[in-house]
Amino acid sequence: MLTLCISYRRADSAASAGRIFDRLTAHFGKDTVFIDTEGIPVGVNFRSHIQAIFKNADVLLALIGPNWIGVKRESGSRINEPNDPIRMELETALAARIPIIPVLIDQATMPDEKDLPEQLKEFSSLNAAEVTSGRDFNVHMERLVEAIERITGRTSQQDVDAGGPGAAAMPPTTSPRSERHAFDLAAYLAVPSILLAIAHYVLVMKLDLSIVYFRFLGIAMVLFVGYQIYARRHYGFVYALSLGAMVGVVSAAAILVIVGLVDRVSIVPSTTLEWQETAEHVVAAAFAAAAGHLLAHVARSTAAQKWRRLFGPR
User: Fold this and answer.
1) What is the C-alpha to C-alpha distance for residues 210 and 202, in angstroms, rounded to an integer?
2) Residue 105, domain extent
């Protein structure tokens, strides 16, 4: 049976943890989600019970708010204490190689490696999801549920019930989320590829401008695509890099076809220089998309830090 565990610090993100728990139980079923306020029987040793549950978990959701490390006024932080429950939960999950999804609450940021004990330094490099308590809560929860389904290969409890015994082990069928992925792929791939082909035709072939102008426009366009991939959809770095390369390949093929038809020359590059220019176009598109993705990540992290400085706990 699917087991999802929620790790959170009560003084940091209790309200958000309750909302996330309710949404996950509604989707996957109440018996699949463990949270300490609901799942620990009275009189049971907390440490032993947590270790037993987490060792058999399919996914651990680590909710991170502005005071996740538990900063103390006198000195130090709770996360560096050996008996801290959050530290214990993460150490157990990391040791058991359980997939961990950090969930950033209300624009919180991932903890720096220097702020974590040696056993948790690996945690700081994990790619995080985001959940805000405002109007984007439902959208963010859809993405989080989608990430859980990709990791576990499980669908909703309603799908399992409809399919009968063993349905949970079956690969999920086409869903609105997979359709959205297909739409995103088509939009982020087709639109920039078509625009790049048109730009090459207008700038280079019609206006006879230097290829430098086309290169600059192409990099700017794919950079914007990479930015949107993270800012709007929170897709990962590898996705952005791969999609940028695909944009480069498709747009290069379209450009070669247009040049071949207009100038009545071979569509396939016939010289080393032509092959080199084609390869440079693909590589530039890939790195531009990756750079846009990193730029969006830095912009969000910077904005979150400013928000915490202005409105975070004193």
Assistant:
1) 12
2) 4-169
State how far the Cα of 249 lies from the Cα of 237, in Å rounded to an integer.
Answer: 19
Do residues 275 and 259 both lie within one domain?
yes
Place of tokens 């079956």: 170
- Which residue, among 1, 76, 85, has the nearest Cα to 37 in the 3D structure? 85
Contact assessment for residue 203 and residue 209, using Cβ atoms and an 8 Å cutoff: yes
Last residue of a domain, one of 169, 195, 221: 169
Q: For the whole model, what pTM was predicted?
A: 0.52
Amino acid of residue 257: V
Least confident of 66-75, 118-127, 240-249, 299-308: 299-308
Do 180 and 47 fall within a single domain? no
Q: Write out the two tokens for 288.
A: 């531009």
Tokens 């190689």 — which residue?
97
pLDDT in tens, 224-253: 988 887 776 667 788 889 999 999 999 999
Domain count, the chain: 2
Lowest mean pLDDT among 79-88, 196-205, 278-287, 302-311: 302-311
| Sequence-ordered list of residues with C-beta below 8 angstroms from that of 212, at least 6 positions apart, any chain | none
- 36 and 139 in a single domain? The answer is yes
Say yes or no: 152 and 9 in one domain: yes
Residues 144, 103 contacting (CB under 8 angstroms): yes
Angle 305-67-144 (CA atoms, 0-180°, nearest 5)? Answer: 80
Say if residue 19 is in the same domain as residue 135: yes
The answer on pLDDT for 168 being more than 70 is no
